[in-house]
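Lecture notes, unit on protein representations.

Consider one protein chain, 299 amino acids long.
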Amino acid sequence: MVLDGIPGRVEKNYPLKQLTTWKIGGTAELAYWPRTLRDLRAARQRAAAAKVPVWLVGKGSNLLLPDEGLPGITLVTTQMRSIHWEDCTVRVEAGYPLARLAQEAGERGWSGLEFARGIPGSVGGAVIMNAGAHGGEIASLLERVSALTPDGTIRTFERREIEFGYRSCSLRGKVWIAEACLRFFPGDRAKILHTMQENLKRRSLNQPLEVPNAGSVFRNPPGDSAGRLIEAAGWKGKSIGGAQVSDKHANFIINTGEAKASDVLALIAEIQKDVQQKYGLALQTEIEYLGGNENQATK
């Protein structure tokens, strides 16, 4: 087997639905949880030598995995959680939960990540998609990242070398984020923690957190809201198979129990077509669909 003798957990025919918040997907031929950057690098090198596909998954909070499963090796970074706190800065590995990082920074009286307290993704995924909410985004705190390149080398990218936009990063699809360095701002601890609690309450009231979902499915068009457009087009509550547009927030597609990736993709396509016809706007997806035979760097 390609991963024989490698440190860490390896599973054959692992259910992909256990790797995403949508709870959708077939099986991974091999799933592997590296614990260090060295493990991650070794797994990628072994996959390249064996000429098998390799896929990267974090906490799976913005990810749709295929019904037919994934061949080769699915690398899951959730065990890569090394963290080093310094004076208003942190160096943290890709698998560290973003919401937990926000809470811990707030406990120190460090401001900047209040927006992220309710975001269920990992640090690596947050960087690669420039995660944001409540007017904040992770790019505003980033100093540099260490990343694994396709040729197996580790490279450091300074903030000035990376271009960020709305839910976009110039490194996306090119490297795998291994570690990020963030700089915070000194603040009032009580105020920071209060802001985070208010953000959590707002998310609970406005989002279907009680059922499997992957957060916002579509990016907001400039000057408008994807949720508003989808609701105005009459899609709230409509479904295809087990995938349903949430009654609580129209930009969320929920898994009602047995949804398939094909159900979600069909629903997305119908919404895009309808909104385009009615309002002349082409909705772009925020979620990632992982499939095919190419190496991917995802959430």
